[in-house]
Amino acid sequence: MTDSETPNKEGYVRPLPAESKGEAPGRGRLKGRRILVVGGGQRVLDAATDPVGNGRAMSLLFAREGAAVAVADMNLASAKETAAQIAKEGGSAEAIEADISKPDDITRMIAEAERALGGLDGLVLNVGIGVGGLGLQGAEPGDWDKVLAVNLRGPMLCCKAALPRLADGSPIVFISSIAGLVAGSRLPAYDASKAALGGLMRHVALEGSRRGIRANIVAPGLVDTPLGRVATQGRPSRGRTPVPFGRQATGWEIAYAALFLVSDESVYVTGQTLAVDSGMTGIS
Fold first, then answer.
1. What is the pTM of this model?
2. Which CATH architecture is the domain 34-276 placed in?
3. pLDDT value at residue 1
């Protein structure tokens, strides 16, 4: 169901609010801000039916809230599409091609974003891959190294390059997964990389605290995105996972959680992980 939750045992169906559907107007919460979203494009599974991905939803939402956005992605065409959608809505965006498994790309990406936006006061890292066979017996050294290069080393190098350039008081938000909190993906490298991201986030929060720079994690549960649908095709049991609210999240719901952590509404929040998962890690 796309416009409401499935009925629970009492038969209650909650219609999706405008925020969950990406239809709510901006409220100026990021007016004048300059934010780099790494992973702001999205995969195309079926262009006619694809829902919005987390990175594109965040980029669009931040722009609607008044920010100038640098949209970075290894797929430049996808980054340009996100930027074009922002421009169509009257916002300001710059597309940047970057593969964060390549250190030189990271250095260039940060410099290009700073130059294009006239400075940086926000960084969102929406990156992650899961490759290899299922279980420890399916894990191969090459796949393990590839996953950690993108999911952990890449964000570390992004923070290393960005911290000296970020304005004092800037937020950094890592988009992780509840796979870093509970077992479940059946991909050991993915689970391990997302768990380790918590340690990286806390270190960045500690270093950044001297300048009021905050670092936090958004940990989505099951989300209906093109990438999520690809994951379900590879592991059909994913789509049958019980969810307390009876449905998967939308990309917009993840974006609003990130918006809270990027905005001054969370100015006293750092070193924390916010699970956006319908209670899967807390009450399931």
1. 0.92
2. 3-Layer(aba) Sandwich (3.40)
3. 40
